[in-house]
Write a structure and sequence with these properties.
The structure is a single chain. The chain has twelve helices and five strands. With 305 residues, the chain is mainly alpha-helical. The protein folds into two domains: 146 residues; 108 residues, Cytochrome Bc1 Complex, Chain D, domain 2 (Orthogonal Bundle), CATH 1.10.760. A three-stranded antiparallel beta sheet has the order 1-2-3, with no helix packed on it. It has a two-stranded antiparallel sheet with strand order 4-5. The chain is globular, with a radius of gyration of 21 Å. It starts with a helix and ends in a 5-residue tail after the last helix. InterPro entries: Cyt_c-like_dom (IPR009056), Cyt_c-like_dom_sf (IPR036909), Cytochrome_c-type_DH (IPR051459).
Length: 305
Amino acid sequence: MASTWIKGLGTLAVLGAAGFGAILFVTAPDRQDPTVWADLGEPDLAHGREVFFAGGCTSCHAQASATGDARLVLAGGAPLKSDFGTFHAPNISSHPEAGIGAWTLAEFGDAMTRGVGRSGEHLYPSFPYGSYARMTPKDINDLYGFMKTLPASDVVAPPHELEFPFNQRLVLGGWKLLYFTDAPRVELADASDMVKRGQYLVEGPGHCGECHTPRNALGGFETGRWLAGGPNPEGEGTIPNITPGSKSMGSWSEGDIVTYLESGFTPDYDSVGGSMVEVQKNMAELTSGDREAIAAYLKAVPSVE
């Protein structure tokens, strides 16, 4: 009898270990094929600057009070409060130790498009790689080339403040399995080239959905409510619905949206406020064509009331 129990427990242990191993294999960090980052040539720094502002890098990684050239010092540290704890934006300046100045293009690209850190660890989706995953290798190359020209900072950002189990990066593999995708957020039939460009900017580098789409209890986007707004993840106020079904913005024309992104003024002559202030500053740095493309896409997405 005892030997039967021992054999049974041994079998369960083997099956449990095999199952745990299978889970680890399925949810392991997944890098891009290295050939993705090969033969891209010298980065286009002027275009990299445009991608930099489209991606809103200064909003989280520069000092909150920074103005002018100080906005280009990406020392990190900005807190992002959430239901899972407080995340702190890292130093992504060109400093070789405190920042990412010593990273290769492949390491930078894997962080941006796969949420995989330099040491092969899962990155928390407070860093919006779920959106950046849609960026082209050329844009990544140009962006990193531009970022390496920016000032270095030796400031070491504080660590994240997370409780168990959220402080265990292994669980992020399961989160990615459930929610991480580089597929389009919405399917737009017969979209014009301008709308397609807007879709790329909004769903990719602009990562607008990261704030404007409501999330479920696990932090994944709610299905069918793309850009529909919801509670502010930092706990104060709400993030507006920016689909055509919005009560506040649904009546805006494409021209109204373009003016807002460029100047910060609404059709009612109100001005941008809250966290959108930094976003609007970034949008003002884009070309007029890109702002028009963003507006065209926002008027084309499914309406959510």
